[in-house]
Specification:
Elements lengths: L2 E6 L5 H14 L10 E3 L9 H6 L3 E6 L1 H8 L19 E7 L3 H8 L1 H11 L4 E8 L18 E5 L2 E7 L19 E8 L10 E10 L5 E10 L6 E3 L6 H4 L3 H8 L1 H19 L1 H4 L3 H22 L6 H13 L3 H4 L3 H17 L2 H7 L1 H16 L8 H7 L3 H14 L1 H7 L5 H6 L6 H5 L1
Antiparallel strand pairs: 1-10, 2-11, 3-4, 4-5, 5-8, 6-7, 6-9, 7-8, 9-10
Length: 443
Amino acid sequence: MLSAGMRTQPSISTRALRLITALVAVHSPFSSAAEAPTRAREDFYQPLSWQQMLDRGYIRKLEVTPDAVEDTLGRSLADYPVDAQPEPGQPFSEIYIAYMNSPMVGRNLLGEQRFRAFIERLDGRGNVMIVMSRGVYPHVGRQFVPGSTPDRIGLMQNNLSIEMRDLNWLEPGQTLAVAGAPVMDAMNLFRVGGNAGFNPGAEASFHLTAELPRNHLMTDSATFNLPVRFADDLFETVAIATPAHENREPIWIGLWKERAWQIGVLVTSLALLTVFFARQKTLTRYPNLVHRARWGFLWFTLLFVGFYAQGQLSVVNIYTLFLAIQDGFSLDVFLLDPVIFILWVYTFVTLFIWGRGLFCGWLCPFGALQEMAAWLGQKLGLWQIRVPERWHRRLILLKYPILLGLVGTAFYSLTLAERLAEVEPFKTSITLGFVRYWPFVVY
């Protein structure tokens, strides 16, 4: 059984999706409902064919037909400039997923030798799903980076988005060892669970999001869902001494642990910046030192805070704040991204001490990029447009109605607000590194 939903929009940023999903999960009456934890039965194996594994529920299949896509989008696949039309009788996308920790599954799919190597390499660290697909729209696109998180597919369990990260352990062109398996166009091993946890024997929901661009500015999107519950005989119940909720660690704590070194580097840099501003009267005696220190910090802001840690503050963060207040405020939602949380708190506090100059002149990755581009343009002798002061004073007032309009739109439609947030240059320049359609890059 599959269901579909449709939206017309550019892709929502990963951070926004994470925060909004968490916001829903925190306030959902079902978020705490969970089945007893399970694990794969290590002694459960027998040789099976591909069809036998499908029939017994060891492999789950999501088939998306061209008609289903066209019905959801409300237009023909021929209307899109990309090659999205399969040959007659072929699926738009045919996806298979299976739980690889189980010997019944992993050993049949990989073969005994490769499965043994897989288990040794995994070393008991987490759950792994294999996702295989064929058709004109596989589960990962051509721009997918091995070792990263897929943007076309996702997994939900207990109203939480389950992290999926590619392990990049399969060899190029690797085929399945099981008899009767179809030839796949794409195949990946994903570690699933992360800090949200994953119970392989419990029900989950898998989804494929198909995004087809009409043009450089507009993308149509359709999501197809597959309820996932693998056969019970693959698993055994794990005995627990105390109820799960008593030992459950908040999701944000795990995320902070994962990014501990990033947090340490950021907090250290902010401490140094605070000392610098606290003693700026003394340091003004050494203009060359101040100039070099600032340029060094701008490079740190651009490369580490911006491109690496993705610490560019944005109006999207304000959406989250107001939506949280409307739906019942929970600090846990904002703690999910430690870098953004620390920067917001630091910027808010220092705003009342030194004004907005500290953030705009030192901590804004896009501002650092602008200043570097202006310096480079000056060195190259490029002509630069200088806005008259009287027009500058008037134009800067536009940001206030724009901000109010964006925030107000978020209460009406978060999808529309995300699309309108493209008025900010941050997503194109910092989040995506200019890897977008040319109109966004030119803007």
